[in-house]
């Protein structure tokens, strides 16, 4: 999943570029996958997935770039999950990888662009994106490093 982003304000909360949420143990909502800019982590680009792993266990992982995203500047962000690793790419470069085995939790929740979905923490009202989002793309398979680099280069 990829998107171009140009944040123009730091809201004080996480800012979701895209989010697909499922209900986890009926106690609240959690992302099946999301692409976001963190708040508590100094406005770093992040990708997150929740999976059902071997043996049916639920697990999650977040990957992030070490530096803050720039305001008023276009940045290309991609999250990639292949069933074994979650990777984050910023401007075509892989910036973080985490091992995570499983399948992204399937759900019927709507994909939201510029907001998170679900009921946790009044999510839809508390985590809006301030800025511009363009060319959101989601694939049914994990792209290769070269394909992600080509996505960045063609845009």
Q: What does it look like?
A:
- This protein has two helices and eleven strands, in the order ββββββββββαβα.
- It is mostly beta strands and 155 residues long.
- Strands 2, 3, 4, 5, 9 and 10 form a six-stranded antiparallel beta sheet that branches. It has a five-stranded antiparallel beta sheet with strand order 8-7-6-1-11.
- The longest helix is centred in the C-terminal third of the chain and has 10 residues, at 145-154.
- The protein is globular and about 45 Å long.
- The mean pLDDT is 80.
Task: Briefly summarize what is shown.
It contains two helices and eleven strands; from the N terminus they run ββββββββββαβα. It is mainly beta. The strands form two sheets. Strands 2, 3, 4, 5, 9 and 10 form a six-stranded antiparallel sheet that branches. A five-stranded antiparallel sheet has the order 8-7-6-1-11.
Keywords:
single chain, 155 residues, mainly beta, 6-stranded antiparallel β-sheet, 5-stranded antiparallel β-sheet
Main sheet? 6 strands, antiparallel
Cα radius of gyration in angstroms: 15 Å
Number of helices: 2
Which structural class matches the secondary elements?
A: mainly beta
Q: Classify the helix fraction into a percent range.
A: under 10%
Number of E-type strands: 11
- CA distance, first residue to last residue: 15 Å
Strand content: over 45%
What kind of oligomer do you see?
A: single chain
* Mean pLDDT figure: 80
